[in-house]
Amino acid sequence: MRIEILVKPQAHINKVEKTAVGFKIFTTAPAQEGRANEAVIQLLAEYFDIAPSQVNILRGHRSHKKLVEINR
Question: Which backbone phi and psi does 11 adopt, to 5 degrees?
């Protein structure tokens, strides 16, 4: 399954919100050195109850908008 997400780095809390067009992810991690991307993978893995290795960022590694593939 592929989903579009919007990432809000350096938020006050870590959470995943489902929206009409995809997901909005809030992470306390900064958008430096890939830390926000790692946090996104971890948060989505927890949300879908899967291993982090089953979450892949396909597009948008340096953007707030990302396309992510979830392998179940």
Answer: -80, 170
- Dist. CA 20–CA 28, nearest whole Å: 23
Return averaged pLDDT per consecutive 10 residues of the chain, 72 residues in all: 97 97 96 96 98 98 97 90
**pLDDT for position 72:** 85
Structure tokens at 31: 């958008």
**Options 3.40.50.800, 3.40.710.10, 3.30.1200.10, 1.10.472.10; which CATH number does 2-70 get?**
3.30.1200.10
Query: CB neighbours of 55 closer than 8 A, spacing ≥ 6?
Result: 41, 44, 45, 48, 68, 69, 70, 71
